[in-house]
Design brief:
The protein is mainly beta. It has helices spanning 2-15, 46-49, 140-143; strands at 26-34, 53-58, 61-62, 67-68, 73-80, 84-91, 97-105, 112-118, 120-121, 123-128, 131-132, 147-153, 159-169, 171-173, 176-185, 188-199, 203-208, 211-215, 225-226, 229-232. The chain contains three helices and 20 strands. The chain is elongated, with a radius of gyration of 27 Å.
Length: 239
């Protein structure tokens, strides 16, 4: 009887262990990331998007140091099988957050789980404060203009859809003339192919070509300012 009791006890002990009892499973999760192209074509490389490294946070804790973005994935281990909250942040070379994604995921199956995520750009508003040379106009009325004609290119010299040959309203910003461009991605460098001040949509007054707008900021609330020096021109499209 004693021997029989021992065998039953051992079976009862080991029968509750391993992945047969799902509450005891420990899973792994590999997170893959991609960066979309605003033009809708093939996804951007890390270099083209300006993303140098990726930092993943799980349930409020960072999962180690940032890893090179070009690795395109990060394996994470030892997850219990309940819901976990993930944040995937894309950082530029200065450690500034320029892309991000957040999601919840419950690993299952006592195995490696794979998650494919698309990072989205952090965006803000570019405020442009043109200075008119040689005159120092301080209001749109004084400069006799009511809008700006803009053609904006991204780092790959592709037109930015929202700012491809558009007229943006001239506004008075204190003692400066201004116009704003919402929805531009942080950490990117843009080029004005054309920037002209206009009366209506036909009378071009002043122009400037090839203005570099470095749009790297430390947080979402900050709006960088580009000063464009406009000189009297013909209103033709920049080369």
């Amino acid at each position: 009887m004693k021997r029989a009791f021992l065998i039953v006890a051992v079976v009862a002990l080991f029968g509750g262990m391993g992945c047969g009892g799902r509450r005891n499973c420990i899973d792994d999760v590999t997170v893959f990331w991609h960066i979309p192209n605003a033009t809708g074509s093939a996804e951007l490389s890390c270099a083209a998007a300006g993303v140098a490294s990726v930092q993943i946070t799980v349930d409020g804790f960072t999962a180690g140091a940032p890893v090179p973005c070009a690795s395109l994935s990060l394996p994470l281990t030892n997850f219990d099988e309940f819901r976990h909250d993930f944040i995937v942040d894309g950082l530029d070379a200065n450690g500034v957050l320029i892309y991000t994604d957040s999601f919840s995921f419950t690993p299952t199956g006592c195995r490696e789980n794979q998650v494919d995520r698309t990072l989205q750009p952090i965006t803000g508003t570019l405020t442009v404060l043109p200075t008119f040379a040689p005159l120092n106009f301080q209001t749109c009325a004084a400069a006799q203009i009511d809008s700006f004609f803009v053609e904006l290119l991204d780092a790959s010299n592709t037109p930015v859809p929202a700012y491809n040959a558009v007229f943006l309203p001239c506004t008075d910003n204190g003692s400066r003339i201004a116009f704003t461009m919402p929805g531009l991605a942080f950490g990117q460098v843009y080029t004005f192919r054309s920037l002209d001040s206009t009366r209506g949509t036909s009378a071009f007054v002043d122009e400037v070509c090839a203005v570099q707008a470095s749009f790297t900021v430390a947080n979402q609330a900050f709006s960088p300012t580009l000063t464009a020096f406009l000189s009297v021109g013909t209103g033709t499209t920049c080369p």
